Amino acid sequence: MPRGSKAKYTDKQKRKAEHIEESYEKRGMSKKTAAKRAWQTVNKQSGGGEKSGGGRKASAKAKKAARKESGQRAAKSRKIGSRKVQKTTTRHKASSSAKS
């Protein structure tokens, strides 16, 4: 099977990659870059092609654990980012009633 072949991907994975690709294109990326990133995202989320065949390394249980861990890392990074925003101090103007 030639390198880059999508034959080992399920229909669901192919649909998912197509939707992700459209989303990247809406954001202004070239078609080639959008397609590349879409398949990278599908591989990250599902662990690659899932149809049976030569050398499947990760079990369904292992893939599920990896997805959960990936989601937890993403959530943690969002929490850290939001904390940085909250720590910045803002100066409030005195209200009009306090001036009198």
Descriptive report:
- It is a single chain.
- The chain is mainly α and 100 residues long.
- The chain has helices spanning 11-26, 31-46, 60-87, 96-99.
- Helix 1 crosses helix 2 (31-46).
- The mean pLDDT is 79.
Topology:
Blueprint: H1 11-26, H2 31-46, H3 60-87, H4 96-99
Helix pairs in contact: 1-2
Strand segment count: 0
Bin the helical content.
Answer: 55-70%
Report the average pLDDT across residues: 79
Along the chain, the helix and strand elements come as HHHH
Q: Calculate Rg over CA atoms.
A: 22 Å
The SS-based structural class is mainly alpha
Distance between the termini: 80 Å
The largest sheet, given as strand count, sense and whether it forms a barrel, is:
none
Low-confidence stretches: none
Query: Treating each run of at least 4 consecutive H or I residues as one helix, how many helices?
Result: 4
Q: What share of the residues does DSSP label as strand, in percent?
A: under 5%
Shape label = flat
Short descriptors:
100 residues, single chain, mainly alpha, 0% strand
